[in-house]
Amino acid sequence: MAWHAMPIDEVLAKLGASAAGLSDAEAAQRLTRDGPNQLTARGGAAWVKKLLEQFLQPLVVVLIGAGALSALLGDLVDAAVIGAVVVANALLGFFQEHRAERAISSLGQTLVTEATVVREGRARRVPSAELVVGDVVALQSGDTVPADLRLLTAKDLEAEEASLTGESVPVEKSLALLPESTGLGDRRNLAFAGSAIVWGQARGVVVATGDRTEAGRIATLMANTVALETPLTRRIAALSKLLVRVILGVAAALFLLGLLRGQSAADTFNAAVALAVGAIPEGLPAAVTIVLAFGVSAMARRRALIRRLPAVETLGSTTVICSDKTGTLTQNQMTVTTLVAGGEAHHVTGVGFEASGHVERNGAAIAPEPGAPVFEALLGAALCCDTRLVWTSGAVKVEGDPTEAALLVAAAKVGLSTERLADEFPRVDVVPFESEHMYMATLNRDAAGRSTAWVKGSSDALLGRCADALQSDGRLGAFDAAATQREVEGLAGKGLRVLVVARRRMPDAHADLTHADVVGLTFLGLVGMVDPPRPEAKEAVARCRAAGIQVKMITGDHAVTAAAIADELGLEGERTAKGPLRAVTGAELAAVTRSDWPALAERVAVFARVAPEQKLELVRALQQRGHVVAMTGDGVNDAPALKQADIGVAMGKNGTDVARGAAAMILTDDNFATIQAAVEEGRGVYDNLVKFIAWTLPTNGGAGVVLLLAMLLATDLPVLPVQLLWVNMVAAVLLGLTLVFEPREPGLMTRPPRPVNAPILDRALITRTALVSAVMGAAAFGLFELAQREGLTLAQARTIAVNTIVIVDVGYLFACRSLRLPLWRIGLFTNRWVWGGALAMLVVQLAFTELTPMNRLFHTEPIPLAWWFIPSSVGLAVYLLADLKKVFTRAAQGP
């Protein structure tokens, strides 16, 4: 129903209600019919199902397969080790990832309030859950609106709807009929469930409860939004499936080949299984989790809390950041920035509700004296305020309207504190603000007993009531209404909210102020204010652009304001014919066919006055263009889009529980610049993850080559499955995981984002992996054969083959510290963990070779000292060749 477009009588008739309220019996009947005024609980999947899902991830399936194969071989200890890794990995993922269904229950809690309801002509307090359609609800300042209401009466009513619509200032409510096409944020004759009344009084009839409210509609949008796979999960899944296909395919082919050659079926099967076990990277799933968990810790130090592990890497893949304006890119604190008085423009420094700052004219600070136009304008603006600023624990709390708070702060910057105003200019009477008049006036008496009417309000209401103007020299002069109106339009075009301040000298004994007294005014000045951008946001936007990341503003605020802020922040997008950024409104979006949304979303950087479902569809439109989308926000209206985005980013300090519940990442400082830092951290995490994978795959590939050669040449197995498991698991922990601590490389934030469909390993890395695997496998097999020819036992030859794989791993580890730069360019000791890991691995491998218990467990034997030097020379050669290749590649590519 378009309740905002219906006359009140028609609304009451359709609802079967009256201004006197429902009877108790009728209310009880409707409550039984419609249910309580609360959101339907939409529970998420059972915890057992969520835990089981952890075991169905492709990499975990690979691990389970490795454990099963080990059990088939009779190696129960090895199977138990792999099983422990599987369980640990699953539990870590289970406890790290919290599903966004919590957001819906959080949203439901916003409606758990009490309400003043009128039934049978009497007002009473009842739980808001007992409200029904047709109830008449009384509202006053400080109340939370308990259901969606069509207003019946309103007196100076203002509601804070930022969390629902994105409106940065309280909305003035009225009873006027509105066109049916009026957008959500402009429906001034409705009050929405969950919004807060900051000023005035009203009565309204309930038109929607529970799931049928606007807040309920958002909960439904969230429930129907499917969380997407992240780029990392897609890439890891693709890599895992490729590894499984290749490894099992080769193992099966070799098994068949052995049978065709007349080899024992049991021996051939055991060799094929050994190949599969050796080639599967058992440590990879755990390593991915640990790398991401380390990224979580690093981001927490930079004030970004990660709720789902893959979100760490997703930030590094982000190509578009869709940001809410209010409270995200801006301070969410109205601030006076411009003052036009005495025919001159002045700049007011300082941001937010802190009183630090001053007034400047032509770039120089001034200290206006009483009687000067600037002083008189700020005096009048401050006296016409009912808002209070309360300082508690070093923070400012606004009790009232944030616009008036901005005026009080500006006045304090010229020495007009609220205490001084109360002492020197006591109020005698007031004409409160009413939407039909669009101004407020107060009558104040100074210490000399002189009475003055001070007025602030809209230019439309007051410019025609001004008879003269205060000039720069303090004298009265002619007032040019047309020129002043042009000044107002110029300031409004910059996104400022503009108020007119005026006064009228009254007889000293005057005690009653009426609308009839608000004539013949002296114009004092124009006050321009805005919810200013965060100081660090502009730099953060520039850094995002340098990193190839588009920043788009999607807000519920007005188009002109949004475009002005976006221009100031440096956003790039389609511009109007006159030059400013084009801001597409929700109404304009509604007229665009859905097939045209992706192209429009690509071109335009600012979307204003958009509804929650439009934010959601804009995110989807960008994803259709192949973008990895990060969506930031702090309000209820942002929650569905936060959940739909590849990564939702919520504000921790001023964000709603709903937004935080839907997001994958929470900024503890509500700072847009933290997103840029998190993107940088995400790219570094992904870099290190690729380094780990590039390092670990040759270990498995080399083992595969060793076994492949043995099966093709019908020799003894150079490496046993239990020995391969030792290498895979121990080397992954002691060597591979040290790459987690690799510092971010230079130029990380000047690279373009990775293509969405780019594999983890590109062609160059695949080639390099194949070459290192071949060298490692050939060296291990060759030394295995050489050792036997030199008279060493089979166990000693196998020990030498294992040591060769491990030592080549150590050498190649140093080459993998950077996949682009040689070791001497990134610094030998910038990652001391690598050196410690390499030393620990060599010590452990010495124990693996020399200690009797290890010999029994892993079928090894001590070897002569000379047989340590040959594998070491192979490891050094592999490192030098890999680093020299980087040098030649960079030289070929040019500077």
- Report the mean per-residue pLDDT as an integer: 84
Report the uncertain regions.
98-112
| Main beta sheet | 11 strands, mixed
Number of helical segments?
Answer: 33
Query: Which value, in Å, is the CA radius of gyration?
Result: 35 Å
Oligomer: single chain
Number of strands: 28
Shape category: elongated
| Strand portion | 15-25%
Helix % is 40-55%
**Which structural class do you get from the secondary structure elements?**
alpha+beta
Through-space gap between termini: 65 Å
What keyword list fits this structure?
895 residues, alpha+beta, eight-stranded mixed β-sheet, 28 strands, 48% helix, elongated
List the helices and strands and how they pair.
Blueprint (H helix, E strand, L loop, with lengths): L7 H8 L8 H11 L12 H9 L2 H15 L3 H21 L4 H9 L4 E6 L2 E6 L8 E5 L7 E13 L1 H4 L5 E2 L17 E2 L4 E13 L5 H10 L7 H30 L4 H15 L4 H18 L2 E3 L4 H7 L2 E4 L1 H5 L5 E7 L2 E5 L10 E3 L2 E3 L6 H11 L4 E5 L2 E5 L2 H11 L5 H7 L2 E5 L7 E7 L5 E7 L1 H4 L3 E5 L5 E3 L2 H13 L3 E10 L14 E10 L6 H10 L3 E5 L4 H11 L13 E3 H5 L6 H7 L2 E3 L3 H13 L4 E5 L5 H6 L2 E5 L5 H6 L2 E3 L4 H42 L7 H14 L28 H27 L4 H22 L7 H4 L5 H19 L1 H7 L7 H28 L2
Parallel strand pairs: 9-23, 9-26, 19-22, 23-25, 24-25, 26-27, 27-28
Antiparallel strand pairs: 1-2, 1-3, 3-7, 4-5, 4-6, 4-7, 8-28, 10-11, 10-22, 11-12, 12-13, 14-15, 16-17, 17-18, 18-21, 19-20, 21-22
Helix pairs in contact: 3-5, 4-5, 6-8, 9-10, 10-26, 10-27, 11-26, 12-26, 14-15, 19-26, 22-23, 26-27, 26-28, 26-29, 27-29, 28-29, 28-33, 29-31, 29-33, 31-32
Q: How would you describe this protein?
A:
The structure is a single chain. With 895 residues, the chain is α+β, with helices and mostly antiparallel strands. Helices cover 48% and strands 17% of the residues. The strands form 4 sheets. Strands 10, 11, 12, 13, 16, 17, 18, 19, 20, 21 and 22 form an 11-stranded mixed beta sheet that branches. Helix 28 packs antiparallel against helix 29 (794-815). The longest helix is centred in the C-terminal third of the chain and has 42 residues, at 672-713. It is elongated, with a radius of gyration of 35 Å. Mean pLDDT is 84; it is low at 98-112.
